[in-house]
Amino acid sequence: MRTILLRAADRLFPAHQGKYGALPPLLLALTFVTGVVDAVSYLGLRHVFVANMTGNVVFVGFSLAGAANLSLWASTLAIAAFVAGAWSAGRVARRIAEGERLLRVIVTVQTVLVAGAVVVAGTTGHQAAGAQAGLIILLGCGMGLQNAAVRKLALPDLTTTVLTLTVTGLVADAAGPATVRRLLSIAAMLGGAACGAALLLHVSAGAALGLALAVLVAVRVALA
To answer: Which of 60, 86, 113, 122 is least surrounded, with the fewest CB atoms within 10 Å of its CB?
Structure first.
């Protein structure tokens, strides 16, 4: 498995073979996870994002202006949970310099949080306000952890959550190796969002979050 991941990493960064270890394809997997959980949070949890804080800040502004169909408390809670996760990951990153080891620790905690979200969604559903708050906290904290760790790793074009600069670079820069990374990053997010939405709408929130959990477990095993 590791040989396959290393080969994939070298293809994503042909000018820096071996520099990032197995991290590049694993970050693409985490990008897929982002798409899944944001599909669940936006479609099932009062139209909030647990990974995209730009959206939540805007939603808070809309809510303060009196916009309907948005929840001020949900957006605020998502931001707070994300901040708590990012703060925690930042403290861990100060003690762990090696990239794969850092991601191993963060993904382990994130996996536990998403597993908790699967339990909540599977036992209480996602319609009640209390269940929604619990899911927002668990998922938001997990995505804050992920974002802070990925920011520390600083692999070009593989942020796992923010695609604005990825899309900008895709169309503004000349074609090259970065084009492949950017296209794969967009495809991973799109695929995760589509799968997460399909499972939420046609099966259950627990099933969608179960998919995210399965991918996280696979990433954790690959990092072992």
So the answer is: 122
